[in-house]
Amino acid sequence: MKSASQIRQEFLDFFQEKGHTIVSSASLIPHNDPTLIFTNAGMNQFKDVFLGTGTRTYHRAADSQKCIRVSGKHNDLEEVGRDTYHHTFFEMLGNWSFGDYYKKEAIAWAWELLTGRWGLPKDKLYATVYQTDEEAESLWKQVTDILPDHIMRFGEKDNFWEMGDTGPCGPCSEIHIDLGPERCDKGHIPGHVCGVNAGCARYIELWNLVFIQYNRKGDGSLEELPAKHVDTGMGFERIVSVLQGQRSNYDIDLFRRIIQGIEEVTGQSYAKAEHQVAMRVIADHIRALTFAIADGALPSNDGRGYVLRRILRRAARFGRTLGMTEPFLYRVIPHLAEAMGAAYPELLQQQAHCELVNKAEEEGFNRTLDKGIELFESIAARLAAAGETTVAGEDAFKLYDTYGFPLDLTQLMAEERGLTVDLDGFDREMENQRNKARQSGKFTMAEDQTRWETLAEEAHSVFRGYEVLETPARLCL
Ligand code: ATP
Ligand code: MG
Ligand code: MG
Ligand code: MG
Questions:
Q1: What is the pLDDT of residues 236-249, one digit of tens each?
Q2: Fewest CB within a 10 Å sphere: which of 41, 122, 169, 411?
Q3: pLDDT given for residue 247 in this prediction
Q4: 154 CA to centre of ligand 1 in angstroms
């Protein structure tokens, strides 16, 4: 069986043979792009080339890009753990043409790699095109031997790719694979019919070929770019799981090594069905946390830092279901570094720093996590006794404000019990607190930092060593 590292290398070699320059992954923290919290696609680092404001010495490039999709237009946090092919952090394999080749070569080479080099069964592959893209549709028929009735047209939602609300964009053509009826995970949903873009695990999207020809402007209008470009993205963990014949991305060699690390650290077994979701979530989240921290991000109370804090708290809470009452995520980091450090040396260079930051965050949250879980349990019991199913906004706010439970964590715990959270009520509580803070004139920081700042005092005395890492206001919990 080919390893994940081999498959990554084969992708890069293939495009190098086709005249592409192999470039490094850009940082997860987008530089000079205020429209993005995290790098969410391979094309981000080339945005300036597409917009015509920057140039490169090459016209063709390929790479494996670190991506995080937990905010903005591309937010997959809710899928993680629930399905087996969306991650918060993943690698996107990509090839680009900057005003050089266009649809024909992009389609022909994708097909050649998947079916020729890698031998995927042609009759299991489907190609989608944008509803009005006759050119792409006829190219699929001309330059590949895909079954003609496996070429399908879709609308904006699936076949017009945009990185965010603004920026380079264009019609796209995607390659999906039919993994067989037994892989459907939506059979329990009334009316579900398996199909391309139907959202179940039977038909999985592997590769998106985007034909960049527009810039979406702030007012929503599309402007023609000075040149036409190709921007492709293939989910690395997905193609590896297909090529390794696995049922889940988490079963590929790379993830198994991380999961083995989690087994070692927690003393629990992944073979036990009741541990699998937690272990997958932890394996996913530790990658997002460590890669982001290695690239210079830090958990905090707003923006990017709060996204990390939310991810860490979810992971810590799943750790409780594995019996981990002491900080443990940081102990998984060496296993991750071992699994991925060769491809991403920054993991090795920053390993000690990542462990330190994770441990401090975990220690902070651990102090309120158990009390928060207790409170949640009592709320759930009260609701069950009353035959109700909605967690009051006040309760969710108390969990947030006093125990540091991000709203999405409370929602997740509620959902596990078949409960929902009164989001409007939560917003009202938040607004009340802001008003109070404004009136008292005490707090001048971003609103949702008020409570944290108070708790931070306590955190300092314990975690003095980390003051050098971050400004005190952000050190808390
Ligand atoms: P999906 O429809 O499966 O959510 P997408 O259409 O949002 O994927 P693209 O923006 O087209 O994804 O990204 C290019 C490729 O990256 C996808 O074809 C897929 O293979 C992979 N990919 C996208 N999101 C994720 C994720 N959260 N985890 C792992 N791989 C992903
Ligand atoms: Mg998506
Ligand atoms: Mg899609
Ligand atoms: Mg797509």
A1: 999 999 999 999 99
A2: 122
A3: 94
A4: 16
CATH of the domain at 182: 3.30.930.10
Q: Using a 6 Å cutoff on CB, does residue 394 contact ligand 1?
A: no
Ligand that comes closest to the CA of residue 169: 1
User: Which of 243, 260, 286 is a domain's end point?
Assistant: 243
Residue 164: its pLDDT value, please? Answer: 82
Whether residue 219 is found in the same domain as residue 310: no
Domain end point (choices 224, 243, 262)? 243
Q: Residue 210: left if φ>0, alpha if ψ -120 to 50, beta else—which one?
A: beta
**Within this chain, do residues 294 and 362 fall inside the same structural domain, yes or no?**
yes
Q: 457: how many CB neighbours lie within 10 A of its CB?
A: 11
pLDDT score at 476: 27
Asked if residues 475 and 463 have their Cβ atoms less than 8 Å apart, the reply is yes
Q: Is the CB of 92 inside a 6 Å radius of any atom of ligand 1?
A: yes
Residues of the chain with pLDDT under 70: 442-477
Task: Please state the pTM of the whole predicted model.
Answer: 0.90
Which amino acid is it at 273?
A
Please tell me the total count of domains within the chain.
2
- For residue 406 and ligand 1, the question of a CB distance below 6 A is answered with no
ipTM of the complex: 0.99
3-state SS class at 257: helix
The tokens describing 105, both together, are 């070569």
Would you say the CB of residue 234 lies under 6 angstroms from ligand 1? yes
Q: Using an 8 Å Cβ cutoff, are 174 and 161 in contact?
A: no
Which domain range does residue 176 map to?
4-243
Q: How far is the CA of 77 from the centre of ligand 1 (A)?
A: 13
Q: Which residue has the tokens 């989240």?
A: 285
Rounded Cα distance between 76 and 432, Å, is 30
Cβ 348 vs Cβ 339: under 8 Å: no
CA-closest candidate to residue 51, choices 33, 73, 38: 33
The answer to whether residues 94 and 164 belong to one domain is yes
Same domain, 350 and 238: no
Q: Which amino acid is at 229?
A: H
